[in-house]
Design brief:
6-stranded parallel β-sheet, 3-stranded parallel β-sheet, single chain, alpha/beta, 11 strands, about 260 residues, 9 helices
C-alpha cells in the first residue's frame, strides 16, 4: 500500500541490494529448469514455502503444461500444509486476477493438472524415490530447515541429474543458504551428503520487494519522513538500501544495530 505524510518508517531490506527478474524472465527460468530436467531424465527439486509461494509456482507450471509449452511430467506436491491450502485458494475465486479468471472461465483448473500428485502421508512421501524420472518434487520448508524437503535432499543432492531450484530468500544459518552459497558437502539428518546437484535460484517469485520497489515505497512519503529505519535484511543489503535512500531521495535513513536506543520526537 502507498504510504504518505508519515514521520517514521520501519522497513525491511531482504533484497535491499538487488532487483528481481521480471515476470517473463522468471517464467523463462522455470521453463528452462523443467526442460533441462526432462532432457537429463532427472529430478527438479523445489524447496517451497507452503503459503502462496507453492500455489504461485504450481499455477505457473500448470500454464506451461496446459499450454503445451513443455511436456507434462509428474509433479509431486509433498507438503501437507500446502495441500490443505489449495481448497482455500479455490474457495476465493472472486479474488483471482484477470489472467487467472480468464483461464478458469475457459475450463482450466488452475491449481490442478493430470500429472499433479498430492502426497498425503510420510510413507507415500518415501515412495517417491521409487517413481520414474523425470519428475518435479515440491516440498517444505522453503529454506530447508525442516519438513519433507530434507529427506528428498538426502536422496537427491548427490545426483548430478538433480536440479535444486530455490524460489526465495535463504537466510544465513539455514541449510538452504549453505547449499546456495556453494557448499560441497552438507549435513542432512546427521548424514554427510555430497552436493553434486545443479543449484539454481529464481528470486522473482519472492514475496519480498526488491531494491527499486523498496525505494519507491519510501518515495511517496519522502517529503514528510523524519527518519527511515532499515531493518530485517542482512547488513550488506540493509546498508546498501540505506545509501540508496539517502542518495536518491535525500531522506535520513539508518540501519539500527542490536541494542540501539532511538528517541522519536
Amino acid at each position: 500500500e502507498k504510504i504518505e505524510d508519515v514521520d517514521y518508517v520501519v522497513m525491511e531490506s531482504v533484497y535491499g541490494d538487488r532487483n528481481h527478474e521480471d515476470k517473463p524472465e522468471r517464467v523463462r527460468k522455470l521453463q528452462e529448469a523443467i526442460e533441462d530436467t526432462i532432457s537429463r531424465q532427472g529430478i527438479l527439486l523445489i524447496p517451497s514455502f507452503s503459503l502462496e509461494k507453492t500455489q504461485e509456482v504450481m499455477y505457473e507450471i500448470n500454464k506451461l503444461f496446459e499450454d503445451g509449452i513443455v511436456r507434462e511430467i509428474p509433479l509431486y506436491l509433498d507438503s501437507p500444509l500446502a495441500s490443505k491450502l489449495i481448497p482455500v485458494y479455490k474457495k476465493y475465486i472472486k479474488d483471482y486476477n484477470k489472467e487467472a479468471t480468464e483461464r478458469r472461465t475457459h475450463g482450466d483448473d488452475i491449481l490442478n493438472f493430470k500429472t499433479l500428485k498430492i502426497i498425503r502421508d510420510a510413507e507415500e512421501s518415501k515412495s517417491i524415490k521409487f517413481t520414474k524420472n523425470p519428475k518435479i518434487i515440491m516440498a517444505g520448508s522453503g529454506m530447508s530447515t525442516g519438513g519433507r524437503i530434507l529427506h528428498h535432499e538426502l536422496n537427491y543432492l548427490g545426483d548430478t541429474n538433480t536440479i535444486l531450484l530455490f524460489m526465495g530468500f535463504q537466510a544465513l544459518g539455514t541449510l538452504g543458504r549453505e547449499i546456495r552459497d556453494g557448499a560441497k558437502v552438507v549435513e542432512v539428518y546427521g548424514t554427510s551428503v555430497p552436493v553434486h546437484a545443479e543449484i539454481r535460484t529464481i528470486d522473482g517469485y519472492s514475496g519480498h520487494k526488491d531494491s527499486d520497489h523498496l525505494v519507491s515505497f519510501v518515495e511517496d512519503t519522502a517529503h514528510s519522513v523524519k527518519k527511515v529505519f532499515v531493518s530485517m535484511g542482512e547488513s550488506k543489503s540493509a546498508l546498501f538500501l540505506v545509501q540508496r535512500l539517502r542518495d536518491y531521495l535525500g531522506v535520513d535513513a539508518t540501519h539500527p544495530q542490536d541494542g540501539d536506543t532511538v528517541v522519536l520526537y
